[in-house]
Amino acid sequence: MTVLVVAGCTAIDDPAAPQASDAKPSASPSAGVPGGEAADTGTLPGVPTAGQARAELAELKVAPHGSMSGYSRDKFSHWAEQGENCNTRETVLERDGTDVTRDDECRAVSGRWVSVYDGKTFTDASDLDIDHMVPLANGWRSGANTWTQEERKAFANDLTYPQLLAVSAASNRSKGDQGPDEWKPPSQAYWCTYARAWVSVKSDYELSVTEAENRGPGTNRRSPRGCR
Predict the structure, then answer these.
(1) What is the number of structural domains in the chain?
(2) What is the model's pLDDT at position 40?
């Protein structure tokens, strides 16, 4: 089977697939770096190398999406308190922004944020959503339905693995609960980092992937294996 790999964001056994960029804007949007160089993962923690992500993907269980029966966002309690009057949302906003100023209730009242999904710059925190790399509903369908409430709370508020990032509200809502076989960031420069982060979260939480997420290109070149 023809396989697309995370490493270098290039295709194996697919000469028709175009080369990819593998860079991520951090403080400002930037052009991709050709030739498969490692991406700058910026503030997003725990992003594996391409080789690590490829190895993790090979170990993931492949299964159809489970039922949405019983699902509710309320079963993934967020945003959790993180100390000093801050919750998870405010913590991520401070981490992902520059020159962030907070009020006495830890709300970001000024700063600058670049949404890595679409390269747009913001100075008003209300224009940003905190995206779950693996959406809560996707997590539910791929194994989180069997977790305890505390386990789901940890997943929804994870600051250790590459699960949370501040992005434009428009891009987050466009993504919804879709996987990378259905949606990728508008900024192609972020595709490889996105794929590696997605695989990492699925691996860290022992969640399954669908055949579409895992398979080679065929008619679908938007799987975590490849970043064209």
Answers:
(1) 1
(2) 61
